Amino acid sequence: MTSRALSALATVRAVALGYAPRVLQARGWVLCALAVLPVAFSFVGLMIGRQFGSFDSRLALHLFHGVLAALVLPIMVLVAAPGGIREDMEQRTLPLILVRPVPVWSLPFAKGLIWFAWGGCWLAAAGLGLVLLGADPGSAARQALALVLAFWAELAFMSLLVLVFKRGTLWGALVLFGWESILRVLPATLQRFTFLHHIESISGSRGGMVADWEILAQEQIASPVLVSVLALLLFGAACWALCGWKLQVTPVGLAGRDAEG
Amino acid sequence: MISLQRASLRYGDILGLSPTSFDLGPGGGITGLLGPNGAGKSSLIQLLCGLLPPSGGEVRVFGEAPYRNPLVLARLGLVPEGDRFPGGMRGDRWLRMMGQLSGLQGRALDLALQRALAITGMESRAGQPFTSMSKGMRQRVRLAQALLHEPRLLILDEPFNGLDPEARLQLMDLLRMLAEGGVRIIVSSHILGEVAQLTDRILLLFRGRLLAEGSVPEIRELLDRHPVELRVTAESAAAVARWAVEQDELVALRMEDGGAVLAVRNPRTFLPRLQEAVVEGRLPLAGLDPLDLNLDAVFQFLTKDNQ
């Protein structure tokens, strides 16, 4: 018989390893496909296009900003976040963990870590795969780093939303597809409060230049790479911490989220 | 080992458990937590195993407040009601994680897994995914996860639900064996017969209140002694009154439009006679309503006990 509390590190390790096989199921393969298929299809298309003599050297850049950063990344976050601690609440398996001598605040991060690791690996592969489409290795490495760090921050943010709000996924979708999409018309200060701004700063390239007809467009600013890296890392860490705090202060009964009589 | 002092639990405006006090001493043994659905059994269990903090009063398990308290949780095992497994996982892997979360590792974890699987008879079948396990097998895995860390207090919420008779008997034997080994076991059920087979000590809950505490015969006697009120609706109130005054159990009678309210003792003998009179046409019964909570409980008992 044991009568000691488990450390946070041991809890994270046990939960992450215990749930690791989950990434090899449908949700995990959807994440993999979302990250890899755009690059793979583009590569195949490029190979076919080369045969006919047409080649667009800006394809990699367009794919990174227009597809991976703006579309694939938010969708991956929307797919991965409900597989975190929220899943245990919905499947009512969380009480079985809560009756163990574990630090409760570490559970959201422990559960989210496997999805971050899995999705991050595929995003890194997709970013580095841009080399196949004509991107230079240095740019591709920065783009891969930007994708992984943004995934870290966005996944933590979304995990917090689904933990705090019943319709957290909806609010998350509004932020990732609504707020982020108006980046170009945001004043300089507010641009720093978008993930895309930091992705662009880290990758060293922009999703597109402001055209003359875009009368609402604001001046585009850039942050130093290190600042953006730190911003994403710290924002993600803060969100995971808030997830832990939220679960720590929320009594969770046998019914999972809502206690039952 | 367990002490509740006016402990209560509210879910917003809903009272899950009224202020309740009782004590369970140290040592092994089985205590039945009895009551119909919605009686407050799960509320009490959630307080005892530290899932929810009491809304009022005090709960002590092993001398400590159990809510999120590792010192208590390390010595406690919970087998909750219903199928609760992470989809797509294998039983043995999940059990290993649960063992690690209980502080076990290395050789101790391997031994604990072997022991828990042997006790529950799942040694050769734990490697299956939960989705391919039968309900009985999943119940055994649920029990195994609670036994991994050799808890001194084991709480089972409706463990017999959905089990076939053979599996029920096996589970009862297993619980008796654990209790003899010094484990304090609390088993909740809404079926008196089940609990009575396991233990003589019962906590009777109804609508969020602890109605009685004692042995099965004591509780039956208590319920029989307590006069309960029945509203008997019939075409002729006079016919009801005529029949009722001949019954030994009648304590009081109040005439109403379309029937009468009878206060009776010992409903366990009164109700079958009432049923007989209706069947034989001596009592033109149109409806029967219990007027106090205890009678509801009596009905639950009588119904379930005779199954």
What would you note in describing this structure?
The complex is a heterodimer of chains A (261) and B (307). By secondary structure, chain A is mainly α. Chain A has one domain. Chain A has 11 helices and no strands. Chain A has helices at residues 8-19, 26-51, 59-80, 85-90, 94-98, 107-129, 137-164, 168-179, 188-191, 195-203, 225-249. In chain A, helix 2 (26-51) packs parallel to helix 6 (107-129) and helix 7 (137-164) packs antiparallel against helix 8 (168-179). Chain A starts with 7 loop residues before the first helix and ends in a 12-residue tail after the last helix. Chain B is an alpha/beta fold. Chain B has 11 helices and 13 strands. Chain B has helices spanning 41-48, 70-73, 91-101, 106-119, 135-147, 165-180, 192-198, 216-225, 237-245, 267-279, 293-305; strands at residues 2-11, 14-24, 29-34, 56-61, 76-79, 153-157, 184-189, 201-206, 209-215, 228-234, 250-256, 259-264, 285-290. In chain B, the strands form 3 sheets. Chain B has a 6-stranded mixed β-sheet with strand order 5-6-7-3-8-9, with helices on both faces. A 4-stranded antiparallel β-sheet of chain B has the order 11-12-10-13. A 3-stranded antiparallel β-sheet of chain B has the order 2-1-4, with helices on one face. In chain B, helix 3 (91-101) runs parallel beside helix 5 (135-147) and helix 4 crosses helix 5 (135-147). The radius of gyration of chain B is 23 Å and the shape is elongated. The A-B interface holds A 1-6, 10-11, 13-15, 17-19, 21-22, 25, 87-88, 91-93, 95-102, 104, 251-254, 258-261 and B 11, 14, 16, 38, 40, 42-43, 45-46, 49-53, 67-68, 70-71, 73-78, 80-82, 84-90, 93-94, 96-98, 100-104, 145, 149-152, 157, 208.
